[in-house]
Design brief:
Order of helices and strands: EHHEHH
Helix content: 40-55%
Strand order of the largest sheet: 1-2
Strand content: 5-15%
Structural class: mainly alpha
């Protein structure tokens, strides 16, 4: 199954804080994990607004997601 992750799930996955319901699907190697460039763009915009809940570096997140097989 193809799974498109939203921005919150990407951030939770990067922080190793996935809810158990989501982790079940994300950790299933038979699923194809996808993310939108719009999520990275959203993080860039919200970081520029100094939002405390968007402190992750978007370049590092992007590289890490690709390395992890997303």
């Amino acid at each position: 199954m193809k799974i498109l992750l939203d921005t919150h799930l990407l951030l939770w996955a990067a922080a190793d804080e996935l809810p158990p319901e989501a982790a079940h699907y994300i950790e299933d190697i038979s699923n194809t994990l996808l993310f939108s460039s719009a999520s990275i763009w959203e993080i860039v915009i919200k970081r520029s607004l100094n939002r405390l809940d968007f402190v992750v570096d978007p370049v590092s997140l992007y590289s890490g997601l690709l390395s992890a097989g997303y």
